[in-house]
Amino acid sequence: MTTVSVSGGSFAAYDVVVGRGLLAGAGAQIAPIARGRTVIVSDETVAMIHGPALQTSLAAAGVRSEIVAVPAGEASKSFAELERLMDRLLASGLDRKDVVVALGGGVVGDLAGLAAALYMRGIDFVQVPTTLLAQVDSSVGGKTAIDTPRGKNLVGAFHQPRLVLADIDVLATLPEVQLRSGWAEVLKHGLICDAPFFDWLAGEGADGVRGDPAALERAVVRSVEIKSAIVGEDEKEAGRRALLNLGHTFGHAIEAELGFEAAALAHGEAVALGCCMAFRFSVRQGLCAAADAERVEAVIAAAGLPSRLDQAGSFEAERLIALMAGDKKAEAGGITLVLARRIGDAFVQKSVDAGELAAFLRDEGAV
Ligand code: NAD
Ligand code: GLY
């Protein structure tokens, strides 16, 4: 078991605990915060598989709990589901000193976190992430949000959790595609700022994407260390935190074109493809050696993740550019991208030339 402390900025420091069998002991960790009762927010799939173990563990620690389960999937990050959830929290009688526990993937964490940020002007919440993506990324750092028809994560708040419990064993029930999707975010952390970690993920650690618990544990711990250091320096994304969006501006545009709910591409798959595109665009701009982009593509493909645009579908360059210009990172209509000088050395590039980007996207296979 490893504990990583997240601190800095204006928020209270909190621990991210990573290890095996944590769900069974979660009650004892949550009890000191929960004052005898809590509401667990989950999705219908996760509530069925892992809800009972968490409730048993809470009960053993003297904490009464009820589960509110939303439908599984991105569509639950909506105003309608947020409203239903707020109503359930109010009906449960939670007060301002109570806590909410988010048990699930990034969808549940983002939705429950936003509900906690809004409930009676903000109550504490605990993240118990059950997807690899949520363990290495979304449960840490306090970004909470829902989607609107105009884009992903456009309505939200920064609200840091009080505690994060990342149990590697819950990943055993995760569908393979979700494991691969989370692996993309793990690889992303190496690509941003840790070349030796990327080397390990490409070699000895590669078994993680096939579910090897020891490799997964090390990958989660290092990812959390990287993410928490960045969040500690730049909680509100005034600068360095934007690096965590490597692959996301391309990836979000592709997801938006396909429709967020399309089973065609999981979020992490879009990010993996976006990372490959960011490296290839960096090469085209003369910023990065072609060998690095080729290696990134090879490692991502070997993990069973998409690396070429045509693997995701057919796209129009101008539509992708319009979506990229509408990204939260875009400033005054200009496009901002996270690009790379080499593996392990990413940087933020503002005012990317739309004409060069269009030409690049056409080379990638867009029309
Ligand atoms: P998800 O929450 O939809 O989970 C994926 C699927 O796996 C769901 O069907 C879920 O029911 C199922 N599942 C979850 N855990 C399981 C388990 N242990 N066993 C079996 N099935 C399980 O998707 P996700 O990939 O975890 O999260 C994606 C979301 O996270 C997106 O909305 C994205 O915007 C958000 N996100 C947020 C941040 C952030 O910083 N807040 C960062 C990255 C991504
Ligand atoms: N996933 C990007 C961030 O947390 O900033």
Structural class: alpha/beta
Which value, in Å, is the CA radius of gyration? 20 Å
Instruction: Record the strand order, biggest sheet.
Output: 1-2-9-6-5-3-4
Number of helices, counting only DSSP H or I runs of 4 residues or more? 13
Bound molecules: nicotinamide-adenine-dinucleotide, glycine
The dominant shape is globular
Largest sheet: 7 strands, mixed
**Could you list the spans in which at least 5 consecutive residues all have pLDDT below 50?**
none
Q: What is the assigned CATH homologous superfamily of the largest domain?
A: Dehydroquinate synthase-like - alpha domain
CATH architectural type of the largest domain: Up-down Bundle
Helix content: 40-55%
- In the CATH hierarchy, the third-tier topology of the largest domain is known as Dehydroquinate synthase-like, alpha domain
Tell me about this structure.
By secondary structure, this protein is α/β, with parallel strands linked by helices. Helices cover 47% and strands 20% of the residues. The protein has two domains: 2-173, Rossmann fold, CATH 3.40.50; 181-364, Dehydroquinate synthase-like, alpha domain (Up-down Bundle), CATH 1.20.1090. The strands form three sheets. The protein has a seven-stranded mixed sheet, sandwiched between helices. The chain has a two-stranded antiparallel ribbon with strand order 7-8. Helix 6 runs antiparallel to helix 7 (195-202). The chain binds nicotinamide-adenine-dinucleotide and glycine (GLY). Nicotinamide-adenine-dinucleotide binds at residues 43, 45-46, 49, 72-74, 77, 104-108, 110, 130-131, 133-134, 137-138, 141, 143, 152-153, 170, 173-174, 178, 181, 267.
